[in-house]
Please model this.
Amino acid sequence: MVDEAGLIAEFYEAAFDASRFPGALRRLAEFTESVGGVLLLWDKYAAEPALLTNGGHMGADASDAYRRHYAQIDPYRPLVEVLAPNRWVRCNDFFDDAYVAKSAFYNEYLGPRGTRYMASARIVADAQFDAFVGIHRGRTEEPFAPAVIERVARIGRHLGRAVEVYLEVTRTGLGRTTAAAMPEQLTTPAVLVDVGARVLFANPAAEALLARETTLGIRYGRLSAVRGGDERQLASLIGVAVTTGAGGTMVIHRSAEQAPLEVLVTPAGPVSTLYNLAPTTAALVLLRDRMVAATAGLGLRERFGLTNSEAALAQGLLDGKRLTDIAAGRRVSIETVRTQLRSLFKKTGTARQVDLLRVLLTPPDSNERG
Model:
């Protein structure tokens, strides 16, 4: 028999190292005389599974299959999510053999993966996430007896607390990643996203801006532009930043009375998220009203000791222009502009164009404080 204290300890260890959740679920299966255990983190903002993992008994494709299709026809989760936390129930309390025989969820998803009987509880009810833990038995086994349900309910609140710690630790880490990526501009609206533009973290400044913005917002858990062209360009910049490590900028035009919105996308490297057991590569999206950016760009020569040509190049970059466009507009060679760019790097203490833009977009008082 698996020791209760040891099992609880394994879940707490997994809270700090998500790769240990499958092992903890295997131990939960032993504790409840099951074929396997499963942990589902349901994203209520996106109305889809965020994290789904099991002890290995359901096969490598189980999580992807559930996300793609079977989450939408799962008859069991909607019943459990309305119950009080740590209220354990059995699927056979709701679904008899006649129902199971006609259910696509059972016959196409659970059955081929060796599962017939389930017992589950919602162990966390978070503002964004519901967390469910379940245990499974096969077709040839007996349904879960009340004694087993009592046993798992006894430790359910501990499992819930461990998952809450996982949420807290991961969110804190994402906030630190965002802050570390922009140490000189903590008040700049910043959103950390994955390759699919799913929002991993947004600082308070970003939340405030996006709450009132009409051209860009968080929809179903993802950073999304209203206009199709802006949406495609944003998705492309995020994809490039995540897959190649290169940053980029774009401009989102708003109403005639409003200045455009500057968007800077830069790679953030691999981070631990609430959506994967292993770290995944992310991108940092910085937002600024162009009117603010223009104000920040005033006095560039004085701020950084720039020549007139270097200041003109800096302002061109702030306006979202490419080096070739700046060279053509000023009727100088691209080699001349690149030489001036290298001088800008040196005077601003940067080495890449994306980092240069970060510094140029930072208000003067922020630079002085840094």
User: Anything to note?
Assistant: The longest strand covers residues 261-271. The chain has three domains: 4-172, 182-289, 298-370. The two ends are 57 Å apart (CA to CA).
